[in-house]
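Chapter summary example.
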Amino acid sequence: MTNAPAAPAIFDQILSSAEFSSLRWEKFREGIEIARVFSAGAEGPSAAFLRYQPGASLERHRHTGYEYILILSGSQVDDGGHHRAGTFVVNPPGTTHAIRSDEGCLVLAIWNYAPYDAPGPAKIITLQFNGLDAKNAKVWRVDAEHGDVHPAYKAMGSPQSPTLAQIVSLKQAGALPPAETVKLHADKLSLQLPTYGLAVVELGSGR
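The structure predicted for these 207 residues follows.
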């Protein structure tokens, strides 16, 4: 898919390798294939699955917006360390990294490349949960008002290779605030997300 979808894109077996057999894979870089979920163009939100062959690498690049990477299988290495399956990586605007995968890996990457100083309007996202005994959800947010490291990173002069002390300061600036509890209505959860915003959702029990 090349445009933002008009209907939901649903992957209900994302932890099963069978889920990806029917995707349309194409060459992205040497040893790396991509299956695009949606794309709004060079500037705007995009999502894709990336499949690295053992030894494949991605050249260093700069993030003009937030980039989110979920490692589904295998592992990859970047400036932040060795990330194994189950790791969720958030790369804020202005940061750079290069990636390699010694054993090969499959990742879900979501990014929103746009000038950080020219944010667009907030969006309302509605999630539909079918067949789950959930009545509420805990929501953690990362945006300009919640756990955003960008002001601290910019104040440091946007270093490409932060010192250990700077990394500690960035981790403190990016500490998540407490989660908010939101009730589901008719198995739906609606969230308002600003540009560069991220929401992590944990479903509660039906009790």
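To summarize the output: The first helix runs from residue 150 to 155.
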